[in-house]
Structure formats: structure tokens, C-alpha cells
Design goal:
two-stranded antiparallel ribbon, 6% strand
């Protein structure tokens, strides 16, 4: 059975549908239609985000006409581009943002393999470890709302570490996404009132702490 192409508009909340539709209409045609996607829940609404995009970036003249919301939507979409350099460039435009619909695009990149992107995430998301920060609140809401997605992301982090990066980081705890996963689990546990399940290598349990 032939899969139907994924609508890029569905990657954003319905309240931003008009802006998203206008943006998508301005994008260059894709060399390969988006057929694979992943679904997340944001504020009770299901968003369907492309797995990979194969459209070139729009011309500067097109970008100059976009609204601030559309510029953010554009950056989100192109973090799903097949070219890692493009993904990284657009990640830098959304990292640290706390809009709930932006968060899944950032979390998804934690479970990918490009080390330069993982290092950018480790630097740009340091406030995840800060109690009471707006960033921590935004990301923990997302994790609590999407436990299976977060568990799958954890498993992908471990898998890519084992396949590509364990020779550079002999201890998993020194691998850039490791501390971010710990911060996300701790933050989610705070909101849920319990230790959040772990889907990655364990560390020695400390008295009175989730491990």
C-alpha cells in the first residue's frame, strides 16, 4: 500500500494553522515527499511532525516576508531536513525557546547521531537543570504528556551512543545527551510526583535519589 504524504501543516497546533498553511505554500517543492512522521501530544492536541524533509530552504526574499511565528515554524520544520548542516543551522534558531509546540522538535534531535548537534543541545539547554526555569517547566510538561516518545528517545540515544560514539565517550555519563536526559527525567518526576522511568544505562543509586 502506498503511504500518503504527510501534511507539514499538521506539525503545528490548529490555532497556528493559517500561518502554517501560508508558510508551507511558500516552500520549494520537495524532491521526495514526506511519508514518515512521528506523533506527539502538545496541550492535549496531536501534532504530526515529519521524520525527514527533502525540500530546499526558501530564498531570502521569501524568508523576509514571513511573520515572527512563521519564522519560528520555518526553523522547526528545517530541523527535520535530511542535511545535518541544515538541521543544525535551524536548531540554533529555536534552541532555548519555550513555546510548547517548539519543544518536540528539539527533543527529537536528542535522539539523533550528529555529534555537533548534540553538543549544541548540551550548551543551549543548560537551563533544564535550573529549578524553576521557564525552559525546565516547558520541557517537563512535554515529557509528562509524551512518556512513550521520551522513552523511545532515551533508547535511541543509547543506541547511537553504542554504535557511533562510545569510542569517544567511554563513560555514557560524559556523552552530551546524558545530562540532558537526567535533567528531563528529574523535571518530569517533579511534576508527576514520582521517579520517572529510566530507559538508559543506570548509575549507582544514591540514597534518597532517583537513579
Amino acid at each position: 500500500m502506498t503511504q500518503r504524504p504527510v501534511s507539514l501543516v499538521s506539525a503545528f497546533p490548529a490555532a497556528l494553522g493559517v500561518e502554517a498553511a501560508e508558510l508551507v505554500a511558500l516552500l520549494p517543492p520537495a524532491r521526495i515527499p514526506v511519508h514518515e512522521a512521528f506523533a506527539v501530544v502538545v496541550g492535549g492536541e496531536v501534532l504530526v511532525i515529519p521524520g525527514r524533509m527533502y525540500a530546499d530552504e526558501p530564498e531570502p526574499g521569501v524568508v523576509a516576508r514571513l511573520s515572527p511565528v512563521q519564522l519560528l515554524q520555518l526553523a522547526c520544520l528545517y530541523t527535520r531536513h535530511h542535511d545535518g548542516y541544515v538541521r543544525r543551522r535551524h536548531l540554533r534558531q529555536i534552541i532555548g525557546r519555550t513555546e510548547p509546540w517548539v519543544v518536540p522538535f528539539v527533543v527529537q534531535l536528542l535522539g539523533e547521531y550528529v555529534l555537533e548537534i548534540l553538543n549544541d543541545l548540551a550548551q543551549g539547554l543548560r537551563d533544564l537543570g535550573v529549578q524553576g526555569s521557564e525552559l525546565r517547566r516547558a520541557f517537563r510538561r512535554f515529557v509528562v504528556e509524551n512518556p512513550e516518545f521520551f522513552a523511545r528517545t532515551e533508547r535511541r540515544v543509547v543506541s547511537y551512543y553504542s554504535c557511533y560514539h562510545r569510542w569517544h565517550y567511554t563513560d555514557f555519563s560524559s556523552y552530551p545527551p546524558s545530562a540532558l536526559l537526567d535533567a528531563l527525567r528529574t523535571a518530569a518526576g517533579e511534576q508527576a510526583g514520582t521517579c520517572w522511568p529510566r530507559h538508559r544505562p543506570r548509575v549507582r543509586r544514591r540514597q534518597g535519589r532517583c537513579a
